[in-house]
Amino acid sequence: RLGDLVAGTVVVHERGTKAKKKPSGIVKEIQNRGLSKDDLIFDEWALRSLGMKDWKLIRTYADRFVQLPVTERNQLTGQIAEIMLPKIGVEATGHSDIELENLLLLLYLHLRDEWEFEL
């Protein structure tokens, strides 16, 4: 910087340690429900068959999940469950709204490990 050159000073930028991220709303929701990846083991082949488009869909669902009113959330959950669950060999019918939410959130946990990268 020009002012530092004139003054004969040196600016030192220290790399700070990476601040710990606060858990997102969906992570808190998953924790509150007591869900973990071990609660439902998906077939490895089925998980590998899901692509970036599927990841973006489930991530968008998870990002909006806690902000949606219950009626809209139930409707969206049903629509996404009909799309995603058959792809991993799980029947979408015959489940309550809470069960479908939990299945999709568990799928989110599995796919997040595959597709989400921290820079």
Question: What would you note in describing this structure?
Answer:
With about 120 residues, the protein is mainly alpha-helical. It has one domain. Helix content is about 55%, strand content about 0%. It has six helices and no strands. It has helices at about 1-5, 25-30, 45-50, 50-65, 70-85, 95-115. Helix 4 runs antiparallel to helix 5 (about 70-85). The longest helix has 19 residues, at about 95-115. It is elongated and about 75 Å long. The mean pLDDT is about 85. It comes from Neobacillus citreus. This is RDD family protein.
- What is the strand content? under 5%
* Computed structural class: mainly alpha
Order of helices and strands: HHHHHH
Overall number of structural domains = 1
- Count of separate DSSP helical elements: 6
Give the biggest beta sheet. none
Which assembly state applies to the chains in this document?
single chain
User: Low-confidence stretches at least 5 residues in length (pLDDT < 50)?
Assistant: none
Distance between the termini: 28 Å
Overall mean pLDDT = 86
Count the beta strands.
Answer: 0
Shape: elongated
Write the layout of secondary structure elements.
Elements: H1 2-7, H2 25-32, H3 44-49, H4 52-65, H5 70-84, H6 97-115
Protein name: RDD family protein
Organism: Neobacillus citreus
